[in-house]
Design brief:
Structural class: alpha/beta
Helix content: 40-55%
Number of strands: 5
Shape: globular
Radius of gyration: 16 Å
Distance between the termini: 14 Å
Order of helices and strands: EHEHHHEHEHHEH
Largest sheet: 5 strands, parallel
Strand content: 5-15%
């Protein structure tokens, strides 16, 4: 059975970094949705947000998620932080992109990581720390709704997170520890 998993979480939670390392360890493809969207749109997400607005961006994001969910084969998928805002996306994540790992970092941790980042459109406001707190309060329940596993990122190295995700994948695999192999 092909290994497939999806990483969700706030911007700056480590989805792309952990995903890249995990895919390398598992020997499968890594897909970063934000990177794919920038290639398709022909500009940065920030530029697209400024020119077309968030609703237009979310429509492109939903279309890409549906396309990726329908593709067979082994992949590690890193989603954009706002992919969970649409109910249809949450349903797809839960059913066709499983298992889903929520890389959970609180707003203050994320602010510390992103305080100098000028690429993220939702953080280009007067008080980005407060904006992150609001986004976290809104999105944390949605990430939990789609997640099969919640991985706290506080004080965890990239390699430790990769190992924890791989351990969960191994335990859930047919014939994994404590699981009989189906006939």
């Amino acid at each position: 059975m092909a290994t497939r998993c999806t990483l969700v979480g706030m911007p700056g939670s480590g989805k792309s970094t952990v995903g890249r390392h995990l895919a390398r360890r598992l020997g499968c493809d890594f897909v970063d949705m934000d990177q794919q969207l920038e290639q398709r749109l022909g500009c940065s997400i920030r530029s697209y947000f400024e020119a077309q607005g968030e609703a237009a961006f979310r429509a492109h994001e939903a279309a890409l998620l549906a396309e990726l969910a329908a593709q067979p084969g082994a992949i590690v998928l890193s989603t954009g932080g706002g992919v969970v805002l649409r109910a249809d996306n949450r349903a797809l994540l839960r059913t066709h992109c499983a298992p889903v790992f929520y890389l959970r970092a609180n707003a203050d941790e994320i602010f510390h990581r992103l305080r100098h980042d000028r690429k993220r459109p939702l953080l280009q406001v007067d008080n980005p720390q407060e904006r992150l707190r609001l986004l976290f309060r809104e999105r944390d329940p949605l990430y939990r709704e789609v997640a099969h596993y919640v991985m706290e990122t506080r004080r965890a190295s990239v390699q430790a997170l990769v190992s924890r995700v791989q351990m969960q994948l191994d335990m859930a695999a047919p014939g994994g520890p404590g699981k009989p192999i189906a006939d």
